[in-house]
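Give me the fold.
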Amino acid sequence: MPWTRKLKARIALDDGRRLVTLADVRALMMALPERHLANGHWLHAGELLLKAAEPDATKADLDAAERQLAVALRGEGLLERVRRKPS
């Protein structure tokens, strides 16, 4: 179940939505206007998200997808904060 893979950090958006799994990120991206998805930071985030959702994805794949997602969300002004799980 790769799309149910949890993000390392729960992401709270400024509109109150929370991104917890790769499926949450995918749903957010699918809801964006096409002009946003044509932007380079979203294109790269999408590529990395697909790689992170593969059955043989590594921790590094997930880390890369999360880093690029943060870049894309900040670029859109959607990122409120990232909450780290306690160690």
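The mean pLDDT is 88.
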